[in-house]
Amino acid sequence: MCVAYFGYIHFTAADLPTFGLNLSGEKGKIKNLTKNFLEAIKFKNNEAIKSFIASDTPAEELNNFFKKTFDMSYEEINLEKFSIEEIEIDSSKTRCKIKINITGTNQITKEPFTKIRVLYWYLDLKAWLIDIKNIVI
After folding, report:
1. Is the model's pLDDT at 122 over the cut of 80?
2. DSSP string over the chain
3. Which is it for the CA torsion 32, 36, 41, 47, positive or negative?
4. What is d(CA 16, CA 62) in angstroms, rounded to the nearest whole number?
5. What's the rounded Cα separation, in Å, for the pair 41 and 75?
6. Which of 47, 71, 107, 117 is the most buried (most CB within 10 A)?
7. Do 24 and 31 touch, CB atoms closer than 8 A?
8. Could you tell me whether strands 127-136 and 95-106 are parallel, antiparallel, or unpaired per DSSP bridges?
9. ∠ Cα 128 130 135 (to 5°)
10. What does the pLDDT look like over 36-53, one tens digit per residue?
């Protein structure tokens, strides 16, 4: 039973208690990074957001990323809830796509939004970064 439980966690990156152990491998790592990235957006932590993208990324590209992902500027986003629906890593183990469900409101118009998006991550010198140029709407 114990082996099946931990095996399930490893292969699915499930959010189940693991007693502090990281048993879900790269999928679990990317899932946690995605949660941290979305929480940084939710709580407007600009410095944390920058840690998930390449350091040489121009501000304009980051602004375009937010406009494509949320259909509004960063300043307008009031992210309320998010969930991670699916994670897939390529065979080279250097690229990943993750399907997310995001819900919130536009802070200016007060209009609610619910969107499903796919974020792409890539492995850069042992650190996973978001590929902000690739967004699937």
Report:
1. yes
2. -HHHHHHHHHHH------TT---SHHHHHHHHHHHHHHHHHHTT-HHHHHTTS-TT--HHHHHHHHHHHHSS-GGGEEEEEEEEEEEEE-TTSSEEEEEEEEEEEETTT--EEEEEEEEEEEEETTEEEEEEEEEE-
3. negative
4. 33
5. 10
6. 117
7. yes
8. unpaired
9. 145
10. 999 999 999 999 999 999
| Residue 38 amino acid letter | L
Q: How far apart are CA 37 and CA 116, in angstroms?
A: 16
Token look-up 């932590």 returns 45
> Residue 22: what pLDDT?
52
Q: What is the token pair recorded at 113?
A: 């939004």
Which amino acid is residue 94, in one-letter code? T
